[in-house]
Task: structure prediction
Amino acid sequence: MDWSRKVSVQSARVKESSIRGVVAKAMRKPDMVFFAGGEPGPDLFAYGEIRAAFDKVLRDPQLAETALQYSSSEGVSGLRDWAAHQMTATGVPCRRENVLITSGSQQSLDLVGRLFIDPGTPVYVQVPTYSGALQAFRAHGAAFRSLWSDGSDPPDAPSRGLGYIIADSQNPSGRTLTIDERLRAIEVAARLALPMVEDDAYSGLRFDDRPLPSLMQLSLDGKPVDEGWAIHLRTFSKTIAPGLRTAWIVAPSPLIERLTAIKQGADLQTSALSQLVALELVERTGGEIARRLADAYRSRRDVMLDALRVEFGSDVTWTLPEGGFFVWMTLPDGIDATALLDRAIAAGVVYVPGRAFHADDSGANTLRLSYSMMSPERIREGVHRLAVALRPALARTRPARSGAAS
Amino acid sequence: MDWSRKVSVQSARVKESSIRGVVAKAMRKPDMVFFAGGEPGPDLFAYGEIRAAFDKVLRDPQLAETALQYSSSEGVSGLRDWAAHQMTATGVPCRRENVLITSGSQQSLDLVGRLFIDPGTPVYVQVPTYSGALQAFRAHGAAFRSLWSDGSDPPDAPSRGLGYIIADSQNPSGRTLTIDERLRAIEVAARLALPMVEDDAYSGLRFDDRPLPSLMQLSLDGKPVDEGWAIHLRTFSKTIAPGLRTAWIVAPSPLIERLTAIKQGADLQTSALSQLVALELVERTGGEIARRLADAYRSRRDVMLDALRVEFGSDVTWTLPEGGFFVWMTLPDGIDATALLDRAIAAGVVYVPGRAFHADDSGANTLRLSYSMMSPERIREGVHRLAVALRPALARTRPARSGAAS
Result:
């Protein structure tokens, strides 16, 4: 059978992640330093506490039955209540009915995409933005536009559309929006009458004790979730472990009802076992696991920033992340990070070229470095290898003054 | 914000499951006999073995790291190999590349729907058929047609389309297709040039040792999976537990590649922890858990069929399932099972009206009874309550001769 003539029109929009291909290729080589991927450090998982939580849930007869049986599409009530309480504690009145538990934030993005996007619907994003969101929204036919395109906004608000923003320790840029930038994003979304999706995967891994107010919090200004037009995405993948496949959406209840119906057709429900284990962990450890992880990632960030200062000159710039996993590097104009990847892999280090994070395939001279997975020693070694791999290209673009030193 | 003007056109096609509403409503009443829902018997889960498998995976440093980390979208290699071996053992040459692990069969249905269905694509189904498949395919705009509509098939095969068939212990009818019926389904699909999806959730819960060849097996006749046009869906939800949220798709490798890309955008991956636990359970117990479950469900089926014979006369008919969870009851024409549901719930028993399983909303005089969740004593009591609830309606439609006896 000629499958290409049998598959749907909608499926032609689906593209595989270029990042996963890069990582898979590089993983087959020994002694590789992984600055690609966005995985948590495997040495940092709270193995003992997670195992104890599974054991506790599966030993309790009533919890075990709930955990192993079919369960509601909305999610386990106790976990929805916990999520609502977390939001309320930041000054955003929130009820259980404002929360839908999902099978990871990628599913949250897909469900939100299904709810708001048809072929051609404008989706306003940061540049760069998270490649997984581009992938999820593109599958539904999103027409991407820059959220910050001064003056080029359409004069009239589109009848449909969506804003997508990562305000804290963004993947891929590592940038955290200032309060002013947050207020401006809210103003843009309001002017265009856009529902605004805030993907908050990393605020739980902030490196200091001065959290910034979320876009949801700022836009509501004390009003309850139901009275706003912000949609807030959270996940346990970074603060506990991706293997739980447990995340959640906070949104006005009419949207949660629609998203629940969509989720029911998409995968019925998220594992109640994972939900009960996550609830046990957050209730028993009270955020301690996330604090330990944030401490470890701060150390790794410090090592990477220090090594970058040592190894690179002023013709290369990078961001200074306040949390999360990522440093974003910008090379001089005319250097293509994709073209240099093979040389980097040959030198024993792998990164993600920045084009994957641009809807319009721009950003050729950028790349994403993740410091989350590697030990401090390996980070130093990796940055050194990166400098060795990039040096010839940098030397060619350097003004004669610097070039003479090489 | 007026959300109804902001949501997508595609989301207007999404309908919530009517079954979940029925079950939720009835569950709030005490002493209810649940013949609704399609859940496994909660008393039958292999609690100890499942807990031991989680403990084993999470105690092994290498397995624990794989389990908790991000993992490949295709699934864990060991589990894909196991699934391929299972298929090969039934005479269908199958490789790892023919297997995609999913987060439950509902996700398999959604992914297959995305791959083959655009608005208006014809989808040929049995009448009745599984309501969750109608829900998943309807979300993508399927135009449902009866697979068995003699003579009314379009003269030319549609350029796109899909066949969807449950051959073993069907949900909802409890029917198992004979070899002749299977061959006829294959012939119809071939004539219409339809990719054929076989949803095999229940063949692992067959009540005797005479398994019938799957549609995939019959259609391939010894050829490898890659040379056919059948797509085979399996799940651990019935043979281990729904809480694992682990199922798989067997299909030609070009389709697995496309389905993998779609899954990547939909939820990145299925929990590697669940996959490793499922693999541990099938490798260590070798199907023993499924055999114990099948024995228990056979006893429950026997009790239900016996009680139906005792309580109902010849004006009501029902199926004789050879496996699975369900008996399908047909009432005399003119009796509406939906209208009688409130009376049944008042009598302390709940079922699912048959209309939920008909794409065209027909089947008013049918209903689905599940014997999976209740103990033998409760099944007897429930069938008695059902007879009491239906008696007045049955008496009104009965010929005078029988009516005189009441």
About this structure: Chain A touches chain B through 84 residues (CB under 8 Å). Residues 402-406 of chain A have pLDDT under 50 and may be disordered. Residues 50 and 245 of chain A are 14 Å apart (CA to CA). The radius of gyration of chain A is 22 Å.
